Amino acid sequence: MNLNSVILMRQEIFLLAILLLLIVGEIFIPNHKKRSMVHLALLLFGIHTMVGFFAIEEASLFGGMFRTNPLIHLFKNVLNVGVFILLLQSADWIQEKLVKDNKGTEFFMLMFSSLLGMYFMISAGDFLMFFIGLELSTLPVAALVAWETSKRISSEAGVKFILSAGLASGVSLFGISLLYATTGSIYFDDIIGLVASNNLTILASILFFSGLAFKISLVPFHFWTADVYEGAPISIASYLSVISKGSAVFILMILMFTVLKPLLHIWEHIIYGIAVATMFIGNLFAIRQHNMKRFLAFSSIAQAGFILLGLITGTQLGTATVVYFVLVYIFSNLAAFGVVQAISLETGKEKRDDYNGLYRTNPNLSLIMMLALFSLAGIPPVAGFFGKFFLFTAAASKGYYFLVFLSVVNVTISLYYYLLIVRAMFIRKSNHPIPFFKSKIYMRLGLIATVLGILALGLYSPLYDYIFDISIIFNK
Amino acid sequence: MDILSLFIIVPVLTILALVFTKGLQQARITAMVGSLIQLGMASNLVIAYFKERAVNDSIMLFTKDMIWFDHFNIHYAIGVDGISVALLGLTAIIVLAGVFISWKMEDLPKEFFISLLVLSTGVYGFFISIDLFTMFVFYEIAVIPMYLLIGIWGSGPKEYSAMKLTLMLMGGSAVLLVGVLGIYFNSNADGGALTFNILEIAKVHIPFAAQKLFFPLTFLGFAVLGALFPFHTWSPDGHASAPTAVSMLHAGVLMKLGGYGIFRIAMFLLPLGAMEWSWFFIILAAIGVVYGAFGAVRQTDLKYINAYASVSHLGLVLFALLTFNKIAWNGAILQSLSHGLLTALFFALIGMIYGRTHTRDINKLGGLMKTLPFIGAVYVITGLAYLGLPGFSGFIAEMNIFVGAFENPDMFHRVLTILAVSSIVVTAVYILRLVGKIMMGPIIDEHHHDLPKVTWYEKTGILLLLIPIIGMGVAPIWLSDMIMASLQPFIQGVLTH
């Protein structure tokens, strides 16, 4: 391990250092000062996020197990920014609820080790590293989901999550072993040349796919989503729907566009079907939800269906549009979850009807929520519109006009239920509206960051151009 | 700053200024000043256009092009011809009139004017765009504020109407998106680069199979907004629930986006597809003309009457466009302008009547001429203009449409034209009956003897609309010339295909 490899792995090393520092802090900081741990963790992670923006060139380490390049690096930065905003939004919750029970540091440690797992997962150069990363990113989340152990619903969510995740990982691992059996290698670079379109390989890739489909909560692997989101603390639901889903989409895309590229002609049909099913089921079930967390769960399932439109292409355009959409989606969903979190923290209310008349008491929160929902629905001029339009363009570039048509039908359906929230906030009146309140500084920073992201990402076009240019890496 | 981008910048600045206002007084003054500047800009644009047209005979004037998303070849490209200049003027007039009519907007005034101006920004942007993507963006920006405008400030079953309207229009735009993508990916048919630029695509020979597939999608996407039968059902409910200024803007301007888009995009870019499909859509349009007229006869709510009348009159625009005749096309554009002004005026008057009597049911109204002479007189004038009395804008437009449509020598078009002409008679029935019932006649309700006087801001709003209506009727020649000249590229591109 020389200096060069330290530089190439600096994101991972830095995050690990933060993790260890926090453990040291946990030991040496006295209990009555534990609140400062939150500031410390935020500060360290903020620095980490900033430092991450220094460029990294393309390279691979440990004989090809670990690789990095501008696109992977960019995606790690995207995850960092997402987690940082998420931490800002949860800081008050952690200070008020967790530190009291002496569990503040554990929260950060679990989340950071999960993030570390994602780093390794998307940087993986072989299936072993990939699988370790996948597990490392999933297991700590199970503990986070079951955080509020005193609540039945939270424990139930934890059990549900760990069981489904375990099953998915097992199936995925079985797929990997079959792939090893047919090709004799676990290194991505070797397998690319060896994958042949025979039945065993196809079966292997389908099994492997289902593991990731679970994390992205594609239909029919979505059953855990709503229950887990509902039971988990809002920060964790947000983390699952944004960060965890984003990283899984990214690695799935890389693998499909490189390792499984020879099977793309078969994948096209599978992804087509799954995309249509995911969009329709996510959207139709979202209409019926009254709990905001469950609602956002189904909305995020539907969004995952849209992402598949970019995956179906297997081109540079597809890569760029998927990465761009995930980036946009992270900001939009974080904004929506942020508002839900702010309101839940202040009043404990999480139902749609509780939002009636929100605009008249809390105009700023309502506007942020509206912006987030419009972005999720794909209404210009906010970023979500550009994200969706480009995804559709990618699918249309391969001639999938009918799929695009089905997607725009779904966009219209989704608009209906997003407008239901807008209706509650702006149009409906309530006898007991949520009273006016001022969020704390961290929460406000977290929400402002998402708003800036939602507004800037679409109108500032050089960002997309940059993503497109570096997307060439996996489509040579 | 170029003369066209101002049409986006000024409304946006007005919106930003509105954000910092407090209370009704500040909000309405700010909105008024902003819309007044827009009207000034529109007048200035008309003058500048005539000057420029004299020395410049390219299709679009004042063009400007800025790269936006390089890899998709998406540009912020703007430019105007006579048609868009006329429609921009129409928009500016109606927005200002709408602000005056909403002078007493008590509930959340700041938010109301902001939404109104977002809508107008979208409309302006749509009319000046010559890039499909930019145009589509502005189209959606124009539609979405309707949800809040109707939902928050509307009346009656406003939640239902707002949702229905928004979903149908956004559904239309979703279908349109597929059409736009289809056009985009066929824009390299002659070997060039993929492009969203309308003028460049118009030069490309898009394969017939693609035209045949994407024309109906593009057409329907816009036709939903243009209230084509049977996709018009959002319109009566939406208009009836919307507050006055929103009905004015929506029927007056927003619905014109449909016809304009069909002409500028669906027919101009996909002429072969248009020829192939015209027989089908022209039947729907003709049904809409007659159905809308009969629907209006049947209604008793003033706003519903007007909404169905709009379906009929805008059906006529689509009908004229699909006849592929330049005189009819000229009539279609004139009809768009004329209907925009007339229907906005109608909705303004209805709003004023409703504000005073608190009913829109014609069975409960009568003898308003005696108590509200100003409203009564203008109502009668508007009604007469609406049914196509010579000397007003409506006559010029419908005359052109029917003369042009009848020039098609085949039986099919002639029968449809006769069918559409018959709607004039039905229009006369419901307009005259209405005027007789609520304006003349005895005063039915005791409370209607003593109604509040018409205020200065209402009169200003009314006159803003009335003057151009008479102007168009008395001296249509400039406008007609301006439109005719701009029809040349369409005649070359579409008719001689």
TrEMBL record, chain A:
Any idea of its EC number?
A: 7.1.1.-
Where is the NADH:quinone oxidoreductase/Mrp antiporter transmembrane domain positioned along the sequence?
124-413
The alphabetized UniProt keywords are:
Cell membrane, Membrane, NAD, Quinone, Translocase, Transmembrane, Transmembrane helix, Transport
Query: What one GO molecular function would you report for this record?
Result: quinone binding
What are the GO cellular component annotations? endomembrane system; plasma membrane
Reaction it catalyzes: a quinone + NADH + 5 H(+)(in) = a quinol + NAD(+) + 4 H(+)(out)
Q: Which InterPro entries match?
A: NADH-Q_OxRdtase_suN/2, ND/Mrp_TM
Topology term for the membrane: Multi-pass membrane protein
Instruction: Kindly list the places in or outside the cell where this protein is found, as annotated in its UniProt entry.
Output: Cell membrane; Endomembrane system; Membrane
Q: Which GO terms describe its biological process?
A: ATP synthesis coupled electron transport
Q: Supply the Pfam families for this chain.
A: Proton_antipo_M
Segments spanning the bilayer are 12-29, 36-56, 71-94, 106-122, 128-147, 159-180, 200-224, 236-260, 266-286, 295-317, 323-345, 365-387, 399-420, 441-460
Matching PANTHER family, A to Z? NADH DEHYDROGENASE (PTHR22773)
Q: Which family would the database say this protein is a member of?
A: Belongs to the complex I subunit 2 family.
Description of how the protein assembles with itself and partners: NDH-1 is composed of 14 different subunits. Subunits NuoA, H, J, K, L, M, N constitute the membrane sector of the complex.
Q: What does this protein do?
A: NDH-1 shuttles electrons from NADH, via FMN and iron-sulfur (Fe-S) centers, to quinones in the respiratory chain. The immediate electron acceptor for the enzyme in this species is believed to be a menaquinone. Couples the redox reaction to proton translocation (for every two electrons transferred, four hydrogen ions are translocated across the cytoplasmic membrane), and thus conserves the redox energy in a proton gradient.
What's the protein name?
A: NADH-quinone oxidoreductase subunit N
What organism, scientifically named, is this protein from? Flavobacterium cellulosilyticum
From the broadest rank down, the organism's phylogenetic lineage runs: Bacteria, Pseudomonadati, Bacteroidota, Flavobacteriia, Flavobacteriales
Q: Which gene encodes it?
A: nuoN
From TrEMBL, chain B:
Offer one example of a GO biological process linked to this entry.
Answer: ATP synthesis coupled electron transport
Pfam families from the UniProt entry: Proton_antipo_M
Top-level division of the source organism's lineage: Bacteria
How this chain sits in the membrane, per its record, is:
Multi-pass membrane protein
Keywords from UniProt, A to Z, are: Membrane, Transmembrane, Transmembrane helix
As for subcellular location, the record says: Endomembrane system; Membrane
Keyword Glycosyltransferase attributed? no
What GO molecular function annotations does the UniProt record carry, in alphabetical order?
Answer: NADH dehydrogenase (ubiquinone) activity; NADH dehydrogenase activity; ubiquinone binding
Question: NADH:quinone oxidoreductase/Mrp antiporter transmembrane domain: from which residue to which, for each copy?
Answer: 130-416
Task: Cite the InterPro entries for this sequence.
Answer: NADH_Q_OxRdtase_chainM/4, NADH_UbQ_OxRdtase, ND/Mrp_TM
Query: One Gene Ontology cellular component annotation?
Result: membrane
Q: Where are the transmembrane segments?
A: 6-24, 31-50, 74-100, 112-130, 136-153, 165-185, 213-232, 253-271, 277-297, 304-324, 336-354, 374-396, 416-435, 456-479
Q: NCBIfam families this protein is in?
A: NDH_I_M
Annotated PANTHER family? NADH-UBIQUINONE OXIDOREDUCTASE CHAIN 4 (PTHR43507), PROTON-TRANSLOCATING NADH-QUINONE OXIDOREDUCTASE, CHAIN M (PTHR43507:SF4)
- Listed name of the protein: NADH-quinone oxidoreductase subunit M
Source organism per UniProt: Flavobacterium cellulosilyticum
